[in-house]
Amino acid sequence: MEFFCYHRDRPGSTALRMELLERHWSYMDQYEKELIARGPTFAPGGDAPSGSVHIVDLPDPATARAFAFDEPGYQAGVYRDVLLLRWRDMLGRTMWDFPGGRTGGNRYLVLGLGAGGAADLTAAPGCQDDLIAYGPLLSDDATTWLGTAALVRAPDADAARGVLAVERYADIEIHPWEFGGRR
């Protein structure tokens, strides 16, 4: 089962986050084989971290909750909240398999929170080459569509937003993002 996990930083927690960085990486190293994508998000126009994305393949929702809430930064109070939802990998690959590589171009987390019927269950044809990870956000039992999450390479935030059909969502968040981990 695939899960999308987004830890959002608590204001003023950057110093604590940096202090715990090695512990965070060591914790994530335990899940190296299960990770589909990972990396920090940043405040718009700045270098200050604003959150941490992890897309992971785990056996069940209970294991996913343990993954999210046992994370050292969460335990120490770095994060203000955690979004943890089932997710479905529509690209069939990890971020490390992205043909565009780890660097070059701007990268974004595009998070569309659903409104009404399911939308964007497959990526728009013109976006395929710039998608790093893409898939629907789902309820724990995977029967209800709740939105869409994508990691995308794009010239700017407006272009990244174009990955989703804007009118089909209650809200779309765009966060600068970069590849995370030690690789």
What is the first-to-last residue Cα distance?
Answer: 24 Å
Order of helices and strands, N to C? EHHEEHHEEEEHE
- From the spread of the alpha carbons, the general shape counts as globular
Output mean pLDDT: 92
SS summary, helix count: 5
Spatial strand arrangement across the major sheet = 2-3-1-4-6-7-5-8
Biggest pleated-sheet summary: 8 strands, antiparallel
Low-confidence stretches: none
According to DSSP, the number of beta strands is 8
- Give the radius of gyration: 15 Å
The helix/strand class is alpha+beta
Strand content: 35-45%
Describe this structure in words.
The structure is a single chain. The chain is of the alpha+beta class. 19% of the residues lie in helices and 38% in strands. The chain contains five helices and eight strands; from the N terminus they run βααββααββββαβ. Strands 2-3-1-4-6-7-5-8 form an eight-stranded antiparallel beta sheet. Strand 2 and strand 3 (49-57) form a beta hairpin. The longest helix has 9 residues, at 21-29.
Give a quick set of tags describing it.
183 residues, alpha+beta, 8-stranded antiparallel beta sheet, 8 strands, 19% helix
Short account of what is shown:
The protein has 183 residues and is an alpha+beta fold. The chain is 19% helix and 38% strand.
Secondary-structure blueprint:
Layout (H helix, E strand, L loop, with lengths): L1 E8 L4 H6 L1 H9 L5 E8 L6 E9 L3 H9 L2 H5 L2 E9 L18 E9 L16 E8 L6 E10 L2 H5 L7 E8 L7
Antiparallel strand pairs: 1-3, 1-4, 2-3, 4-6, 5-7, 5-8, 6-7
